[in-house]
Predict the 3D structure of the following.
Amino acid sequence: MVMYDGKTSAIIALLKYYYIKQALGTTVPGAIFRECVSVTEGGMFSPDGKQQPTVQAAAACNPDGSWGINIVNTPVCPPSTAKTYGAATSFTLSITVEELANTPSATFTLYRSRANTHVVNSGTVTFTNGVGTVSIASKELLSLRSASATATIPPVPSGLSASTFNAP
């Protein structure tokens, strides 16, 4: 996650460091994660473990009642053993948190990280009845965190996809 530069005697933080730093600020110990499903590409992991969706997500309800969502847009490897990646593509995503479907308005703080732009507060996103929209660039990590809520963490639903997103 860090690298030593012998020419300058400096320690350089790699992009992975900033991704982890940002993601860890979204969910906390005790958070209950929900299944995430892409409307266009299915689950976050393929049954054969080879191909993952271009846009991957993780969503959780924190012990304080806040919600944390991390989304990363990674060009994917083809299903063969080739070491080439798919084209870099930006998306506009529609995110649905089913547990917030009866919440008229929920505000999430949005953070972004990508090459040369690390953990940037990009304002807020309002979810209406559990649905919010964000844009994501190629090789970018988005993190959304709602304010604390007095509600208790909902029980883990059975057979329910709590968080979905729709990428073209």
Q: What stands out?
A: The mean pLDDT is 80. The longest helix spans residues 15-24.
